[in-house]
Amino acid sequence: MALSAISMGRTFVHPAFDALVIGGGLSLLVAMWIAVDGTSAGLVMASSVPYFLLFVNNAHFAASTVRLYRKPDAFRDLPFLTMAFPLVTLVVVTASIAFADQVGRHLQALMLTWSPYHYCAQAYGLAAMYCYRSGCALAEPERRMLRWTCMVPFGVAVLSGTQAGSGLGWFVPWYTIAESELGLALFRGASVALGALAFAMPVALFLRVRARSRRLTASGEPAAERGMPLISLLIIASNSVWFVVFEYFDAFAWAALFHGLQYLGIVTIFHVRDRQRVEGVRHGWAYHTGMFYAACVGLGYLLWQCWSGAYVLIGFGRIESVLMVATAINLHHFITDAYIWRLRQDPNRTVMMETHPGHTA
Amino acid sequence: MDKSAVYRGMFAIGMVLFAVSCAAGLAFEVAAQRRLPPLLPSPFEYARSLPEQGYMDEFVSEYRTAVAIVPHASWTHLQLGFALNHAGDASGALQAFRTAARLDPSSSTAHYNVAVLLLGGGDHKTARRHARKAQKLAREAGDRIDPYLLDALGLSVSGE
What's the pTM? Predict the structure, then answer.
């Protein structure tokens, strides 16, 4: 029974920290606060937005770059990404500002469409990581099901972005759907179905993995075959809440904020463990955490608040400069992120599987 | 040429350009606004401040750029409509609001503004149609539209 008992899983810092920050539990608590007392929650949230942006959202975009350059052997293993990609990004952002109506609009639509995919891919990566870390070896069909489960909110965002000109709206203007009764009915039906799937599939997956683990336990299989940890379920569920419960623009704001917090939490843990392994005990975790976070906030400020000013200075309009720089920062983050979290033959794997000082709840 | 040498060269150029861009951007923002760049830079907030500074053409131009970058979204056309109306170009504003209403037929704001501008232009019949649509959409969203417009078009507030 103990093997198949429901468990939070083996966490990195502390069950409460992992559940609130990395699991997205804090976003659910804030959502409940808004539901119970929307006025005071709204006032606090609204007045905190600039600080959340600087200290969480902007810092998280910078974190992937800081992590890339502080990762052991990054220049050797990822020469294009570390050395050539910054210049490529500069050229692309300049071209997209200069040709905002031809190049910029497609980059903007690509960024808005890719964003929810990035959030869902992160949910998948984190959920799978906690499974493996907690001794829940997913079978291939379960791993595929986990991926599809995490991608359902992306499908929701593709549809809900139509009116804003992203997702489906990048290719099919909203009015072509809204003008046809059948089109509108199909669109609404698909949205409702995907919304329901976003909550039903995680539960189905959780029960399926649990049932397999119980079967294995009953047949005397090794103790490592555990059920899916609750924190994995929480990660998937909070991502679904962001995209299904909230309206499109609110979903973006919500996901951007709490995804940023989630990202900063996990990337800092990996960075600190790496540095401690490389440098030994010369500096404690607080030092590495503080230095990494300071670098993220500083670079985030330069990227978001200063960089676009250079384009305005040389004569481009403010709107295209700010929008295209923001687009480039997003795309650079998505691409960088796809490489820095690789696990095979990578120090990341050591951090993921190490036993100390994680906690099991 | 050695590939790694090319990469190293690209890295050096990229880093120098980025550092110069950020330093120049920071200096420009501090000189222009006499303070550090705000934590929440909104290009639209900046655009809205342009008419006060006498830059009406630039004001409209900023919103035209927003439409060029996000052409399929109703909200960018709405913003352009407000900008053109503010700049005194009623026919341009009407066209922008009509595009916004076409892109998002469920936008009460777009239909409302089309009705207001048509009323100003004397086309009461079409204005009435858009006002009714705006009223219906607003009611569905649990909202209501300005009763003065309905009154001016001889429509009842209750929508009967």
Answer: 0.84
